[in-house]
Amino acid sequence: MPTETPTDKAELDRAFSELYRAHLRDVYSYSYYRVGNHHDAEDLTEQTFLQAYRHFERALRESNGRPLRPWLIRIAHNLAANFYRDRSRKPESAIDDAGMISSPHTTESLVEGREELKTILDGVQQLPDDRREALIMRFALGMDNREIARALGRSDGATKVLIHRAIRQLEEEMSDSDDR
Amino acid sequence: MTGDASHNLSGSTWDVERLLGDALRPIEPPERLSGRFEDTLSAVTQAAAEELSDWAEELSESELRALRDPRNWLRPVVAAGVGGAATGALVLLELRRRGRGQTKGRLRSVANRVRP
To answer: Which partner from A54, A96, B31, B58 sits 20 to 30 angstroms from A164, CA to CA?
Structure first.
């Protein structure tokens, strides 16, 4: 991404195209894991980039050369919150097995692996919203603590604690389910 | 389930981070999404441009004519001048009032000193 704010419209549009190409997959992945289906994920991704386009010049100016990915994810996060509020619902279904489909497995481990992944995805769905989102950002988008902190509007320290607690909670729940 | 193989060395917990890495894979957006976004963006910018152009057209028929008339430029200048003059007059009046007050005060003190 350019570090200086483009001055004319064409330059600004070029910079935006670059941002779009660089982060389409991130925004789509985040949206998908938030809403749980491809149809709504497409809508959410489109709305995120439209809103980003409207405020792009200002965002570039105020970012001081820092990456804009957290800003984009924050837009998607806010829009997803509105999405749930408007429809008064949570995701229709648990996150489906999109991740599992693309995971490389040997034939022998396939069935067992899928079961493990299903258990962990179910666990992720049961987490409080902020913990679930932090894990999506960390594992699906590969964001570091600082980026996640910026996207969630928290401090780096609070984000580190949030992720740690989310993982601990999942570990405990999976151990409990193993004991049953 | 793979059971023990999925547990950490302590045997008490799952290797949750590895599982999360496997389960939460990035999702490839459908190819049609880029085309769809470009279409929407074009429609939005086109609509914005038309709205701006409509606004400019409306303005050119009524307000723009008035704005172009130099007689209308004079009004704000006169208004500012009148406002400035009125303010100046008020300041002068206030200074004179204070000046008179001070003179009266000085006369009173002289009179007091002269009195036995």
So the answer is: A96
Residue from A116, A137, A148, A163 whose CB has the most chain B CBs within 10 Å, to mutate: A116
> How far apart are the CA of B59 and the nearest CA of chain A, in angstroms?
25
Q: Cβ contacts (< 8 Å) between B6 and chain A: which residues?
A: 116
Could you report the per-residue pLDDT of A122-171, keeping only the tens digit for each? 899 899 999 999 999 999 999 999 999 999 999 999 999 999 999 999 99
Could you state, in order of their start, the residue ranges of all structural domains in chain B? 31-68, 70-116
Residue A99: inside a domain:
no
Least confident of A22-26, A50-54, A69-73, A82-86: A82-86
Q: What is the pLDDT of residues B82-114, one digit of tens each?
A: 566 666 666 666 767 766 666 566 656 655 555
Tokens of A108: 């022998």
| Alpha-carbon span B62 to B65, nearest angstrom | 6
CA B41 – CA B45 distance, rounded (Å): 6
Check whether residue A148 and residue A176 sit in a common domain: yes
Say if residue A62 is in the same domain as residue A119: no
What is the radius of gyration, based on Cα positions, of chain B? 41
CATH number at residue A2: 1.10.1740.10
Q: Which residues contact B72 (CB under 8 A, 6 or more apart)?
A: B66
> Is the domain of A13 the same as that of A82?
yes
B-chain residues within 8 Å CB-CB of A26? 26
